[in-house]
Automatic annotation (TrEMBL):
<keyword id="KW-0963">Cytoplasm</keyword>
<keyword id="KW-0819">tRNA processing</keyword>
<keyword id="KW-0547">Nucleotide-binding</keyword>
<keyword id="KW-0460">Magnesium</keyword>
<protein>
    <recommendedName>
        <fullName>tRNA threonylcarbamoyladenosine biosynthesis protein TsaE</fullName>
    </recommendedName>
</protein>
<comment type="similarity">
    <text>Belongs to the TsaE family.</text>
</comment>
<dbReference type="InterPro" id="IPR027417">
    <property type="entry name" value="P-loop_NTPase"/>
</dbReference>
<keyword id="KW-0479">Metal-binding</keyword>
<dbReference type="Pfam" id="PF02367">
    <property type="entry name" value="TsaE"/>
</dbReference>
<dbReference type="InterPro" id="IPR003442">
    <property type="entry name" value="T6A_TsaE"/>
</dbReference>
<keyword id="KW-0067">ATP-binding</keyword>
């Protein structure tokens, strides 16, 4: 499976890549977003969600764990599992029910949902490089591969 790599020189570049990514996606899709705090996972998600057609803010779902959007009859679920201490919280919210044939799920801190959320089609890693960021977008399924090919 192949990967897409880029250097993101500032926040605008991250939003722009989110827009490009949004043009290539359709449900069903599971995207894991990996990277340290402040790497740009939510910034990238904002670019994706706004380009899909959401008008208004994209807030970080750190406390709610998930922020739902419905855009053109597609469900977008933006998760932030940073705060999850006990997997039971995820069982309690019925996390599996969000992953449907009609949903695009963007998951920050997926390691905290280990075993309770479906495998990723695409894994995005964002790393600090001084003031810039390095991003890698890896395909982990056929769906993911089709998407990554469109980014080239
Ligand atoms: P995360 O969700 O990974 O914790 P956020 O997207 O919430 O990170 O925050 C990223 C922060 O880093 C923002 O304050 C943003 O302005 C800043 N920033 C600086 N350079 C970049 C870049 N290239 N891409 C994304 N964010 C950047
Ligand atoms: Mg975040």
């Amino acid at each position: 499976m192949t990967a897409f790599n880029a250097t993101l020189k500032d926040e605008n570049a991250t939003v722009a890549l989110g827009q490009q990514f949004a043009q290539a996606i359709k449900p069903p899709l599971v995207v894991y977003l990996n990277g340290d705090l402040g790497a740009g996972k939510t910034t990238l998600s904002r670019g994706i969600i706004q380009h899909l057609g959401h008008i208004g803010a994209v807030k970080s779902p750190t406390y709610a764990l998930v922020e739902p959007y419905e855009i053109n009859n597609v469900d977008i679920f933006h998760f932030d599992l940073y705060r999850v201490a006990d997997p039971e919280e995820l069982e309690y919210m019925g996390i599996r029910d969000y992953f449907t044939d009609n949903s695009i799920c963007l998951v920050e801190w997926p390691e905290n949902g280990n075993g309770l959320i479906p495998a990723a089609d695409v894994q995005i890693n964002i790393r600090y490089q001084d003031e810039q960021r390095q991003i890698t977008i890896e395909a982990h399924s056929d769906i993911g591969q089709t998407l990554v090919n469109k980014l080239k």
